[in-house]
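Give me structure tokens for this 570-residue protein.
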Amino acid sequence: MDQGSGAGPHRARGRLGAPSCGARAPGAPWARFSAWLECVCVVTFDLELGQALELVYPSDFQLTDKEKSSICYLSFPDSHSGCLGDTQFSFRIRQCGGQRRPWHTDDRHCDSGAPVSLQREPAHYFGYVYFRQVKDSSVKRGYFQKALLSLVAPEYFDKLAPCLEAVCDEVDQWPAPVPGQTLNLPVMGVVLQVHIPSRADKPESGPPKQCSHENLLPAPVVLTSVHELDLFRCFRPVLAHVQLLWELMLLGEPLLVLAPSPAVSSEMVLALTSCLQPLKFCCDYRPYFTVHDSEFKEFTTRTQAPPSVVLGVTNPFFIKTLQHWPHVLRIGEPKMPGDLPKQVKLKKPSRLKTLDTKPGLYTAYTTYLHRDKALLRRLLKGLQKKRPSDVQTAVLRRHLLELTQSFLSPLEHYMASLMPLQKSITPWKTPPQIHPFHQDDFLCSLEHSGPQLTCLLKGDRLGLYRWADSRRFFKSPHFDGWYRQRHKEMAQKLEALHLEAICEANIEIWMKDKSEVEVVDLVLKLRERLVRAQGHQLPVKEATLKRARLYIETVIGSLPKDLQVVLCPP
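Here you go.
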């Protein structure tokens, strides 16, 4: 299991990794292991108990009873899926016992360096499941059923617990996942080459490219991770409605995804939540969800409006339970690669049937942007020419990336105007505040800097912000998450500029008419800024840090000996 990350980089992060990437104290047990994953669980089927947790490794990892129950149920496909053989899928659950481990400086450094969409979610766990169900006459039920939350499942099913322990010991020797680095990680006799995404990376519209200057292994096999989905394969049955689905995700609309298996369900949900990149998906989402989940009542209640959540399920019972939800996507069995599969049709929610619901997108929503027919023609042409799926995905992801960037452009432009001018920042005064975000002012600015200037698609682009004057986007978790992140970055920039202004001023002239209390206050504030900057929480140059240290020494040297001892104890 993985503490919430949204996804990971290449192969290792594809099943285990999370940017909770702080190395613990060298002597702490499982210090390096916990930088990559929380624990590995083995779930089996007991004739008397049903799904049961057979093994948790490391054995001292603490899970609440509610978390154990959720893990057990979510690790097995429900009876409607009929999954034989090996199945891989993922789920996401809410932590019930609060944050297990305190955050360290390295945690914050690594988290701040990771892309926003991959930053750690301390309130959730991610589970990556390898489920096996095969016929076995020696078992009363006639089937061997077991699930492992880890990437080592095939070896584990053959070699059992000793293999699992050996792999966990190997993971505990790995270095911490630092954003921007490429690591070679040994496991089970092979070496995984893992590139850790960084915020400095440009948004990728295609498969990851190898860097010639990296110390790459010869002839590597590229294995993508959870956050690098084959978007074209996931969206094949809904390509005609990609723009509609993008709008639903952007506005934080509740969406039920009914799929034939947990694998299809989890992939579709993760594909939907990734289509807003580089905007972080801030609504709740569950790649795979069952009636046994502890939050079942919360999501299915009719006493209040449906929550902003994307829910992936396989049990048709949810069609009846969630008939009041405004949007339902029913997808059928995946087709073999080749021609474009039959596209699901748009249908009115009133046509939903409890037991025999045909594939379709059941919604009364009307899009603001017109369908991009040129995109569909390009993708169809790619199919006819047997263009590789990763190239098709690159075309699709580039289209979605441009949609999101075009939508964010006026928001970024207006937000930048709220930043105080640098000339208003003086060294010996409290830095000015960031101006407040006024929705009316922003909407007025759209005529001059709106998405119509950057988006080639026709339609009511401004309506996406206004949403029939209800301003739905501004009420969504996405706006709140985006605004908080940008405001935090701007506040840090303001603090860094103020520190630079202090370091460029003449400290000795300032101290001439200042009392000891004022001088000591300056020392304490400079030290606080220095600690924050060294912890990579402020964007400050190394030259500024050196000058700040020199200033602190100069100021302390001007104070009486007794105060110097207090401020610099031996």
